[in-house]
């Protein structure tokens, strides 16, 4: 068969053994059924390439959605799903994650210091903590929390002590969480609520009233990923607030220049996140100022490869406004290209991959077609906007040596390079599909995310909004992007079904 040239799964010596076992079993069952990759792909409704990747363990663990479909098509009787669950547990153990609650890999579980196990707090002074660890840019922080038992039936109700709404914990100005711990002692479901929201819900209530929580705010890869990002971003921006304002004044002289590159010395006292904000804000303004130099429908090249970087699209307030304005100035439907090589996906945790998908969903919601190239050769390209003819705007802040590098150029060699890159990415995008829903489903497949679960959770979050769990404290942060992205995922998933 022409599509069986990927080699035996067992030859992937560097892959996790449990993932190899799953890949080998998929391959064995497919061959036993005398099916090619293309035939099996038609049966399960996925692309041939994506189905073939399930037999190549070095590409990582296939999504639960795909394995479930393969299990049914190959009459495996649940054995493939069982192998995948074992592989997921092995992967978590290998990366040192807590197995107590199996929450988001990118954040440690709610824990009491020294025990690593979820505990039920009995009063406002009995605190637990949610760790939001450091990343490539994030410095890491801790979200103070108190935890109480909840009863779960038609509602989720937490038994908080009397006077809790007026206590010092919920009146702290910085971020805090009230956590409800479900009744299942073996695998308790945890629910979160921002302390401001908790105070509002208890205001004026009788002393014996319980705190009404929301099923949508179950703590999992999606919600903890958002908390991880917003806590780190906000903490950094609040700490640097005065310095950031001073830096904005210093860079005003560059606003009217078509070309500038500013080193980190102009913001040497700022932390990495604040420099990201400064560079991102300047680059967005630079693009909008020079949009009239473009002569055709623009193609944007963005350098974000992981959820940590992509979360800025969801949480920086100016990025939301920039997407709306750049779409309005773009005329026909523009394209935005990501370069996300397979190794980057393999090295990213599920919560980060969810943030990356939500950033793409936000762009699609504004009428921007997202394309993804997996070709690692393009990772060094700067961020740019190319008009399809002979003009380009360079706007680089992710991975730049300084705070930003911007330009407006018609240099033939550079523009030709941008044209080749965007042309290749659009022609070979792993999201090659006609509709936003199909593209996002394909992105979920590529990122090894469970699309059915994600669409359901996005619908729940979209209905309530994320601010009840992660209310912004900084004027530079907004959750509008998260809410819009979640609602869009839910909408396109419902249309597709």
From TrEMBL:
Name the domain of life this protein comes from. Bacteria
Which InterPro entries does the record cross-reference, listed alphabetically? Cro/C1-type_HTH (IPR001387), Lambda_DNA-bd_dom_sf (IPR010982)
Which CDD domains does the annotation name? Answer: HTH_XRE
What protein name does the entry list?
A: Helix-turn-helix domain-containing protein
* Organism this protein belongs to: Actinokineospora diospyrosa
For this protein, the record's SUPFAM superfamilies field holds:
lambda repressor-like DNA-binding domains
Q: Fetch the Pfam families from UniProt.
A: HTH_31
Annotated ranges, domain HTH cro/C1-type: 26-70
């Amino acid at each position: 068969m022409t599509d069986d040239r990927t080699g035996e799964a067992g030859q992937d010596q560097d892959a996790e053994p449990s993932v190899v076992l799953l890949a080998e079993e998929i391959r064995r069952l497919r061959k036993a059924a005398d099916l090619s990759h293309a035939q099996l792909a038609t049966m399960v409704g996925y692309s041939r390439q994506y189905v073939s990747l399930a037999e190549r363990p070095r590409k990582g663990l296939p999504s639960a959605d795909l394995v479930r479909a393969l299990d049914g098509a190959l009459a495996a009787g649940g054995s493939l799903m069982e192998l995948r669950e074992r592989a997921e547990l092995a992967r978590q153990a290998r990366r040192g994650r807590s197995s107590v609650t199996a929450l988001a890999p990118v954040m440690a579980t709610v824990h009491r210091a020294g025990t690593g196990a979820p505990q039920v707090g009995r009063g406002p002074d009995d605190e637990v903590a949610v760790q939001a660890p450091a990343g490539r840019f994030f410095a890491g922080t801790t979200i103070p929390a108190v935890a109480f038992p909840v009863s779960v039936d038609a509602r989720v109700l937490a038994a908080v002590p009397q006077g809790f709404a007026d206590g010092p914990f919920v009146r702290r100005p910085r971020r805090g969480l009230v956590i409800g711990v479900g009744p299942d002692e073996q695998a308790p479901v945890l629910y979160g609520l921002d302390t401001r929201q908790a105070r509002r819900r208890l205001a004026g209530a009788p002393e014996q009233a319980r705190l009404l929580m929301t099923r949508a705010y179950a703590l999992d890869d999606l919600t903890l990923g958002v908390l991880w990002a917003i806590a780190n971003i906000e903490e950094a921006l609040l700490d640097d607030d005065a310095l950031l304002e001073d830096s904005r004044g210093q860079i005003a002289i560059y606003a009217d220049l078509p070309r500038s590159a500013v080193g980190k010395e102009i913001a040497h006292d700022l932390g990495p996140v604040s420099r990201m904000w400064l560079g991102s804000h300047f680059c967005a303004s630079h693009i909008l100022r020079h949009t009239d130099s473009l002569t055709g429908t623009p193609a944007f090249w963005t350098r974000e490869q992981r959820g940590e970087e992509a979360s800025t699209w969801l949480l920086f307030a100016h990025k939301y406004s920039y997407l709306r304005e750049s779409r309005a100035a773009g005329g026909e439907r523009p394209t935005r290209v990501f370069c996300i090589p397979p190794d980057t996906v393999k090295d990213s945790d599920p919560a980060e991959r969810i943030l990356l998908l939500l950033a793409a969903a936000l762009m699609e919601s504004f009428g921007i077609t997202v394309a993804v190239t997996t070709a690692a050769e393009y990772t060094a390209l700067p961020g740019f906007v190319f008009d399809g003819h002979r003009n380009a705007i360079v706007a680089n802040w992710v991975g730049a040596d300084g705070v930003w590098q911007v330009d407006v150029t018609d240099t033939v060699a550079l523009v030709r390079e941008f044209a080749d890159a965007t042309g290749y990415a659009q022609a070979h995008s792993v999201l090659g599909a006609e509709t936003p829903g199909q593209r996002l489903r394909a992105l979920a497949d590529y990122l090894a995310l469970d699309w059915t679960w994600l669409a359901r959770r996005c619908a729940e979050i979209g209905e309530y909004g994320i601010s009840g769990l992660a209310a912004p404290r900084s004027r530079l942060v907004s959750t509008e992007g998260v809410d819009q992205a979640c609602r869009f995922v839910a909408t396109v998933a419902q249309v597709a079904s």
